[in-house]
Amino acid sequence: MTKLKELIGESGAQVDVKRGLLFLAAVVALALYGPVREYLYWTYKSMYYTHVVLIPLVSAYLIFTRRKEIFEDVGYAFAPGGAVAGLGVLLLAAAVLASEWGRNDYYALVACSTVLVVIGAFIALFGLRAFQAARFALLFLAFMVPLPTAVEQWIIRVLQLGSAEFVAFLFQFTGMPILRDACVFHLPGISIEVAPQCSGIRSSLALVITCVLAGHMFLKTTWKKAVLVLAVLPITMLKNGIRIVTLSVLAVYVDRGFLESSLHRDGGIVFFILALCLMAPILFVLRRGEHKKSV
């Protein structure tokens, strides 16, 4: 009789905990709804972050493909999961209070808080072992977080200066007389500038995400995964240089209208494919070396 009462008491406590968690989850969901909706609309209009809507789909697919391994041994982990989710809630509160911040930094906090809440909820409901198995898919959600303004501007500047160096290098093979003034190149009849808009940060982010996925799928060694991702920087600069020099040569020798053509405005996908083609041999070499080592 005593054991029966103890079991009833334990089951009743579990029911109370679950009800409390459901109530808390509903409150957090309501608190996140408004900021997350605004954040998604902002990314839709953004120059650099239109890709973030695809990130949860990729994460969900990665979890689905490993669902048997991930959910083989599940259990509650309320304390660590609640701590992670609680940190997310604190970041959301900080985002709301920091109303004087720029939109970029505000939505970075909103996205980061949302990712932490999702990860915390997963840990709380499925346990630490399930989290370890799904770690890459869940941490991949970090790509939903926009870069802080200071970091974004620094990366744009690095890409701009690096692209200008590649432009100067590639112009040597055209035989065209040029006069360089920092990021401005004076050509016969026209002058072009490697402006911040030419930095290619949008394609760089997309390329980083692609390389992180490729490294996870095809490489096993951590340092080789890092090399693959780090290669994005020079490849992006080279891709930008090829794009700028191509358009400049066409403008000088064919028609100046190429500088305002659809190839200039909307041709990013063509040169992004070129960047992927340039990354492919690097992945091939890294994967081949790893294969030889395993053999």
Give structural notes.
The chain has 295 residues and is mostly helical. It folds into 2 domains: 2-138, no CATH class; 151-294, no CATH class. Helix content is 74%, strand content 4%. The protein contains 13 helices and 3 strands; from the N terminus they run ααααααααβββααααα. It has helices at residues 2-45, 55-65, 67-70, 78-97, 103-126, 128-133, 135-139, 149-171, 201-218, 222-230, 232-253, 262-265, 268-294, and strands at 179-181, 184-187, 190-193. Strands 1-2-3 form a 3-stranded antiparallel β-sheet, with no helix packed on it. A hairpin with a 2-residue loop joins strand 2 (184-187) and strand 3 (190-193). Helix 1 runs antiparallel to helix 5, helix 9 packs parallel to helix 13 (268-294) and helix 11 runs antiparallel to helix 13. The longest helix is centred in the first third of the chain and has 44 residues, at 2-45. It is globular. Residues 1-10 have low confidence and may be disordered.
Please describe the topology of this protein.
Layout: H1 2-45, H2 55-65, H3 67-70, H4 78-97, H5 103-126, H6 128-133, H7 135-139, H8 149-171, E1 179-181, E2 184-187, E3 190-193, H9 201-218, H10 222-230, H11 232-253, H12 262-265, H13 268-294
